[in-house]
C-alpha cells in the first residue's frame, strides 16, 4: 500500500489481527503514539503473534494494563491527542470516555461479516453453524459492541472441512485487506460509512472448554461442525465421555453415503477396516481422522486395545 498523509493514532490490539493491522497502520505512515495490549496468559495456548513484539520492533510505547478503562490509561491516551483510536482484537470493552478521545473517530476490526456474528468468538461460531462464508469488518465503535456503521468489509470462504484455525487465518488476511483499503479514505475524509441493519444478524457470547462436549443425540453434520470449530491445539477440542473416560475428536470427515437413520439413538464410535468411525444419531457416518484418549493420540489399533471391538457410546 502506498504511503498516505500522516495521522496519529492510539491502538488497542492483540492476537494475529492486532499484529497485522498494527503493521498496516505503520506501513501507511500513521503516527502510532501508543499501543495498548494484553499481558499473555500462561494458561492459554499462545499460538498467535505478539502485538507487544511488533511494537518493540518499531520502537513504539506499549503498555498492558489490567484495565484499559482505568483513569491512568485514559489520561495517557488523552495526552497523546490522537486523531484516531483503533481496536484490533483487543479483548476488553472500551468505554465512552476512551471512545470520545480521538478527534476523527474510533474504529474496530471484527472477525465476521457484520451484522452477522456480533460479539465473541465470531469465527468459531460461524464454523459451528456450518456457514460457508465469513470475513472481516471495519466499523465505527459505539459503547455497545459491534453495532457501529461499517467502513468496509471483505469476505472469505469457509470450506466444508476447514477448521476454525484455517478460517481464522483467512480472516486475518481479510482484516489486513480491509484496513489497507480503508485507511487512505479514513485519513483524507472520503470514507462513507454505512449503518448496520442489526436485524440481519445476532449477538454471540464467549465459548468455554466445556462447550466442546458433543451432544449424545447430535446429527453427523452438527458433530463435524463442532469438531472443526474447536479443533486443537488452538482451541480446547470436542469430546465425549464413555464409562467415565474422556475421548477427544480433533478431525472428522462426513461420508458421502449416510447409514440408515437411527431415530433417538446416541452416536457411537467404532472401528472398521482399520479405521475409526462415528455413526451419528441421524445415521450419518463420519470418518474419525484424529482422536485422543486422556490426552494421548488414539487410532483404530489403540481403540481396540483399550476398548475392545465393541462400539463406544457417550455416557447419558
How is this fold's topology laid out?
Elements (H helix, E strand, L loop, with lengths): L7 E6 L1 H13 L3 E6 L14 H7 L4 E2 L7 H9 L4 E5 L7 H4 L6 E5 L7 E2 L2 H7 L4 E8 L9 E8 L6 H25 L14 E2 L15 H10 L8 E5 L2 E10 L13 E5 L2 E5 L5 E9 L2 E2 L2 H8 L9
Parallel strand pairs: 1-2, 1-4, 2-3, 4-5, 6-9
Antiparallel strand pairs: 5-7, 7-8, 10-11, 11-14, 12-13, 13-14, 14-15
Helix pairs in contact: 1-2, 1-6, 5-7
Low-confidence stretches: none
Strand content: 25-35%
Shape: elongated
CATH architecture of the largest domain: 3-Layer(aba) Sandwich
The helix tally amounts to 8
Task: Please characterize this protein's 3D structure.
With about 325 residues, the protein is of the alpha/beta class. The protein folds into two domains: about 10-205, Rossmann fold (3-Layer(aba) Sandwich), CATH 3.40.50; about 210-305, Methionyl-tRNA Fmet Formyltransferase, Chain A, domain 2 (Roll), CATH 3.10.25. About 25% of the residues lie in helices and about 25% in strands. The strands form three sheets. A seven-stranded mixed beta sheet has the order 3-2-1-4-5-7-8. Strands 10, 11, 12, 13, 14 and 15 form a six-stranded antiparallel beta sheet that branches. A two-stranded parallel ribbon has the order 6-9. Strand 14 (about 285-295) and strand 15 form a beta hairpin. Helix 5 runs antiparallel to helix 7. The longest helix is centred in the middle third of the chain and has 25 residues, at about 165-190.
Amino acid at each position: 500500500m502506498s504511503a498516505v498523509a500522516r495521522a496519529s493514532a492510539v491502538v488497542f490490539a492483540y492476537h494475529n489481527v492486532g499484529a497485522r493491522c498494527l503493521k498496516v497502520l505503520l506501513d501507511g505512515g500513521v503516527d502510532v503514539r501508543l499501543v495498548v495490549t494484553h499481558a499473555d496468559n500462561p494458561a492459554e495456548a499462545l499460538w498467535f503473534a505478539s502485538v507487544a513484539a511488533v511494537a518493540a520492533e518499531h520502537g513504539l510505547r506499549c503498555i498492558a494494563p489490567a484495565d484499559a478503562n482505568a483513569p491512568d490509561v485514559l489520561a495517557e491516551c488523552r495526552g497523546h491527542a490522537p486523531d484516531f483510536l483503533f481496536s484490533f482484537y483487543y479483548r476488553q470493552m472500551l468505554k465512552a470516555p476512551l471512545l470520545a478521545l480521538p478527534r476523527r473517530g474510533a474504529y474496530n476490526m471484527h472477525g465476521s461479516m457484520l451484522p452477522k456474528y456480533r460479539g465473541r468468538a465470531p469465527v468459531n461460531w460461524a464454523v459451528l453453524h456450518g456457514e460457508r462464508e465469513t470475513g472481516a469488518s471495519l466499523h465505527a465503535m459505539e459503547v455497545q459492541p459491534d453495532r457501529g456503521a461499517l467502513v468496509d468489509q471483505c469476505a472469505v470462504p469457509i470450506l466444508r472441512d476447514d477448521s476454525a484455525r484455517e478460517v481464522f487465518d483467512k480472516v486475518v488476511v481479510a482484516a489486513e485487506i480491509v484496513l489497507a483499503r480503508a485507511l487512505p479514505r479514513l485519513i483524507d475524509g472520503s470514507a462513507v460509512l454505512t449503518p448496520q441493519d442489526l436485524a440481519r444478524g445476532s449477538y454471540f457470547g464467549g465459548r468455554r472448554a466445556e462447550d466442546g462436549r458433543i451432544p449424545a443425540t447430535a446429527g453427523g453434520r452438527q458433530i463435524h461442525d463442532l469438531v472443526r470449530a474447536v479443533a486443537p491445539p488452538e482451541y480446547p477440542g470436542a469430546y465425549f465421555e464413555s464409562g467415565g473416560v474422556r475421548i477427544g475428536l480433533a478431525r472428522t470427515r462426513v461420508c458421502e453415503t449416510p447409514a440408515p437413520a437411527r431415530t433417538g439413538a446416541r452416536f457411537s464410535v467404532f472401528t472398521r477396516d482399520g479405521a475409526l468411525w462415528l455413526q451419528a444419531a441421524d445415521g450419518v457416518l463420519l470418518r474419525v481422522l484424529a482422536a485422543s484418549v486422556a490426552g494421548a493420540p488414539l487410532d483404530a489399533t489403540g481403540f481396540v486395545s483399550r476398548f475392545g471391538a465393541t462400539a463406544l457410546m457417550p455416557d447419558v
